[in-house]
Write a structure and sequence with these properties.
five-stranded mixed beta sheet, single chain
């Protein structure tokens, strides 16, 4: 779709033929899955209905050129599919999670629900207490069920495919700058199929 937006008259089949000719991997068709949402409003499957209704967050890791780990905390609004923040650091603990969320909440307001997995940074007492004190309800997905946090997992895949797999970061500061530029591009320029491009 980005090619079409740039004025190219090209379809999916032609792009896949070019990929094959160049020796690139063509994604396999996946069979459609049933919806995860239930009408009973259960915690894990609560469907976002408006902006600031459900946010989700998750962690992604990559490495700098010297082999040191870089962690990213991705915070997404599930309704608008907007990436609200990506915190990039060597380590991110529960206080880093709170600081990132507080910064976004000062600008965007407090969400009704925040969805995450059961990692130690997400289930820490300080995080649960702080979220309860600001009025946001926590939604924890079942252990070993990343598909229940599908919006965030989809975003993480795009972040890997479109940025992390093609970049070599020589410093933490470089990673922070490049990833923030990509986040702004993702939110403002890049077409989103789930939003009708």
């Amino acid at each position: 779709m980005e090619l079409q937006a740039a004025g190219w008259r090209i379809g999916k089949d032609r792009v896949e033929r070019i990929w094959r000719r160049e020796g690139l991997k063509v994604p396999q068709k996946q069979k459609p899955r049933g919806r995860l949402w239930l009408n009973d409003g259960s915690c894990v499957r609560l469907r976002p209905e408006r902006p600031n209704h459900v946010w989700s967050y998750d962690f992604v890791s990559t490495f700098t050129h010297d082999g040191r780990t870089v962690r990213m905390l991705n915070l997404i609004d599930e309704f608008t599919r907007e990436c609200l923040a990506i915190r990039v650091a060597r380590r991110i603990n529960s206080l880093g999670v709170l600081e990132t969320m507080a910064d976004v909440m000062l600008v965007r307001g407090i969400p009704e629900h925040i969805r995450s997995d059961n990692g130690p940074e997400m289930t820490a007492k300080i995080v649960r207490r702080w979220l309860a004190s600001v009025g946001a309800q926590t939604l924890y997905i079942a252990p070993g069920s990343p598909w229940e946090n599908g919006c965030c997992e989809s975003f993480n895949g795009k972040l890997h495919d479109e940025l992390l797999n093609g970049e070599i970061f020589y410093s933490l500061r470089e990673a922070q700058i490049v990833i923030e530029q990509w986040r702004k591009h993702y939110n403002t320029i890049r077409p989103h199929s789930s939003l009708g491009y």
